[in-house]
Structures are given as structure tokens and as C-alpha cells.
Amino acid sequence: MVQRASQSVVVSAPATLVYDVVTDFERYHEWASEVKRAVVAERDGSGRPLEVEYRAAAYGRSTTYTLHYDYSRAPEELAWTQVQGDLTEALNGRYRFESLGELTRVTYDLEVELRVPIPPFIRSRAAQRIQVDALDELKARVESLA
Fold first, then answer.
1. pLDDT at residue 114 in the model
2. Can you tell me the mean pLDDT for 122-126?
3. What is the pLDDT of residues 71-81, one digit of tens each?
4. How buried is residue 121: exposed, middle or buried, by Cβ count under 10 Å (0-12/13-18/19+)?
5. pTM for this one?
């Protein structure tokens, strides 16, 4: 069963800086506590990361997955779809960046489908925790650079 969730946070920095941090995948391990490694496997014609392989902590164990990024609405949005995952059937989502002058509202939409059956309330909590942690850590990273 697919679990969908959406969360937002306001960051005290311009949207361009938030976007730059979000698209610097190889540095995620420096600020995203769940990410242990991110390796760019493929780049597009403009040199942007197109496919990124991750190793991360999830559900009390380690997981690996590969995401394919879509820059068609950049820099207002960055979307991704999972192309491979050992624990997840789907790990799709997007960041939306709304400029509020010197502030930015970041909305994180996430769709997760696990390969193993887990009670719905645990799936729901896990998806929300992923989003809240990701947004809190993104906010802290960006504001430390602003």
C-alpha cells in the first residue's frame, strides 16, 4: 500500500540557496542524518545529477535505493522517482520552493511503498518522520550557510 504525505517549512534564506543545497546530493551525508552515502551515477547534458544512488538508515536497518531526478520545473520544483530499492517498491516525491522574499517555503511531498507488509499506523508515522526530519535538517543546513 502506498503512503502519501506532505509537509512544509519556512527557511530563512532565498530560494536559490535552498535549491542549491537540495541539489548538492553528494554532500547530503554532511547534514541529513539518515543518509550515509550518496553517489551520482548519471548526469544529464547540463551536468546535473540525473540518477543518484543512496545508502541510508531506514526502519531500523540500512537500505539502498536509486532515485531519478526531474528538473523540468526547476528551480521552483525538484521531483524524483525511485528506479531501484531494496526495502521500498516506490520512493517518489518532490520539493517545491516558494520564494517569500528573503524567506523560502519548502514543501516536501512524499510517496512511499514498502516491499514488506507493515501496519498502516507505522507506515504513516515513518513517512511523516522522514519528512519532518528531512525538512528540519535542510532548514538547519541552509540557514547555517545563509
1. 81
2. 65
3. 999 999 999 99
4. exposed
5. 0.90
Contact, 56 vs 83, CB < 8 A? no
Quote the Cα angle for 118-63-131, to 5°: 70
Q: Which helix (H) or strand (E) holds 20?
A: helix 15-22
Cα–Cα distance, 116 to 25 (Å, whole number)? 27
Residue range of the domain that includes 115: 2-145
Q: What is the distance between the alpha carbons of residues 79 and 1, in angstroms, rounded to a whole number?
A: 21
Domain count, the chain: 1
User: CATH code at 110?
Assistant: 3.30.530.20
Could you tell me how many residues make up the chain?
146
Closest to 98 in 3D by CA, of 89, 90, 108: 108
- φ and ψ of 66, to 5 deg: -125, 130
- Judged by DSSP in three states, 63 sits in strand
Could you read off the pLDDT of 58-106 as tens digits, one per residue?
A: 767 789 999 999 999 999 999 999 999 998 899 999 999 999 999 999 9
